[in-house]
Specification:
heterodimer, A: 313 residues, alpha+beta, four-stranded antiparallel β-sheet, 10 strands, 35% helix, B: mainly alpha, 2 domains, 8 helices, elongated
């Protein structure tokens, strides 16, 4: 059956290898550099593989664990909305609370507060924004205390205080088991080991790109930063990293702002930190700032999570 | 909450099978299924009726898997460009309309249309999960023959699939 396409001996071998890998239950991919016709052959192999009797039945453990995870996410949505209702924010205060906030206006927050139960993804959400309902942290606290400055201290006060003691005393040996990327010695862990924590979803690697994602919960506000490899910490890093650090300036507590030159700038007193959270001010009362404390991150299926203290709310 | 339970019950198997039929292995099928459902739950609109929710999650599945293929092909950029130059429109263009035929149905239709020796080799290798050796023995061929035969059978199957699902 001459087809006009030249078949090479390697084609048969490559295909056979692929089929055997699938039969063995391994992850397998077609070889690179395929023509469209050749690619279709491999897609057919995957399709036919799925017709094998046991093949396309999902594992019960997988089904259950995904169900649990989805239920947890769904619950989160329910809780967020309930809390919002019970605050009973009067209309007048709502507008007042937004103006003093030093953070840049994030228009998608407004519809979030008014929105009913439905949770649509805001289509024009700027790449820096994490889940919109999480950024509500700022506005809710602002209502209580009159500004995001106090909000940061309230939320991160205990954490920062104890962290400063730690860093002035010894090396950060306490949380040595966390999965820091970046040189361990000079990083300061924000969240102690002995408190209840939760993994907070921040966004996807795609959303992060090569910049930052901001996030805020009831207990912390921070940034997830993508550090390209060779980012010049103490030594050249060999691969890209994703780190999370606290947004609360270690000088007094205002929330720092990400700049185009890949530094964090504090709007209150001009404190500057590099992309690792390391202070860069050389002079004056800012000379002895401690680094922005780190939070533990994990990435699952391209989704970024940060470990934050559980809220008592 | 109940709505979600029902939705998950009814859809998870379908989505998993669809993902599996694209990638051929359990691990990636699970990864993709998780991604798809998480995206869905994040942006689900509970106002929709169950039918349209199911259609909508299949749409998410399609785009998620198209992204997966795109990421894979992009790994060798030059080959992607070659493919595009050769008139290939990208992985998304090749997706059959999922709602029409389940993977199992597609396979059955294709098998029915294949010439006998092609049908037999694919049945042995895939449906019965036989090895090259077992298949060769069963069909009275050499192992080398079987390798050539399965290649051509899948190629013919790809052509037939175009016909079967009505794509041009």
């Amino acid at each position: 059956m001459p087809d006009g396409d030249q078949e090479r001996f390697e084609d048969y071998l490559d295909l056979e290898r692929y089929i055997e890998e699938l039969q063995a239950g391994h992850v397998a991919h077609p070889p690179k550099g395929l023509t469209p016709e050749q690619a279709r052959i491999y897609r057919m192999a995957a399709l036919f593989r799925s017709a094998a009797p046991e093949a396309a039945t999902p594992r019960p453990e997988f089904v259950e664990s995904l169900r649990a995870r989805l239920l947890a996410m769904d619950q989160e949505h329910v809780e967020d909305d309930t809390e919002e209702d019970t605050l009973k924010i009067p209309i007048a205060n709502k507008s007042a609370e937004r103006t003093p906030a030093p953070t840049p206006p994030e228009p998608q927050e407004v519809p979030r507060q008014e929105a009913p139960r439905a949770q649509p993804q805001p289509p024009e959400a700027p790449p820096r924004a994490a889940k919109p309902e999480r950024v509500r942290f700022v506005s809710r606290r602002s209502l209580l205390t009159g500004g995001a400055v106090a909000a940061a201290s309230l939320a991160a006060g205990v954490g920062i205080g104890s962290v400063i003691e730690q860093s002035q005393g010894s090396k950060s040996g306490t949380a040595a088991t966390t999965q820091y990327t970046g040189t361990p010695d000079a990083t300061v862990p924000l969240v102690p080991n002995n408190i209840a924590t939760a993994w907070n979803y921040v966004g996807t690697l795609a959303q992060l790109g090569d910049g930052v994602l901001r996030f805020a919960t009831d207990t912390v506000a921070g940034f997830v930063v993508h550090i390209p490899k060779g980012g010049a910490w103490e030594e050249e890093e060999e691969e890209d990293q994703v780190i999370a650090l606290s947004a609360a300036c270690t000088h007094m507590g205002c929330l720092v702002q990400w700049q185009k030159n890949r530094q964090f700038l504090c709007p209150c007193h001009g404190g500057l930190f590099d992309q690792y959270g390391k202070p860069v001010n050389a002079a004056g009362h800012l000379k002895y700032m401690t680094p922005l404390p780190r939070m533990e991150t994990k990435i699952v299926n391209g989704e970024i999570y940060v470990k934050v203290p559980k809220s008592n709310a | 909450m109940q709505k979600f339970q029902t939705f998950y019950e009814e859809t998870h198997r379908l989505i998993y099978r669809y993902a599996y039929s694209q990638v051929g292995n359990q691990q990636e099928a699970e990864d993709l299924t998780s991604q798809i459902f998480i995206k869905a739950v994040r942006s689900i609109d509970h106002q929709r009726d169950p039918q349209s929710i199911q259609k909508w999650i299949f749409k998410i599945a399609q785009t998620t898997i198209a992204d997966y293929w795109r990421a894979y092909y992009r790994a060798s950029v030059s080959s992607l460009e070659e493919l595009l130059d050769a008139g290939w429109e990208g992985p998304a263009a090749e997706e059959p309309v999922v709602a029409d035929a389940t993977p199992a149905e597609r396979v059955q239709r294709i098998l029915a249309l294949l010439p006998e020796h092609y049908r037999e080799v694919l049945t042995c290798r895939f449906l019965l999960n036989l090895s090259i050796k077992e298949t060769a023995s069963r069909m009275g061929l050499t192992e080398a023959n079987v390798k050539v035969l399965q290649f051509r059978a899948l190629k013919r199957a790809a052509d037939l699939d175009t016909t079967v699902s009505g794509k041009v």
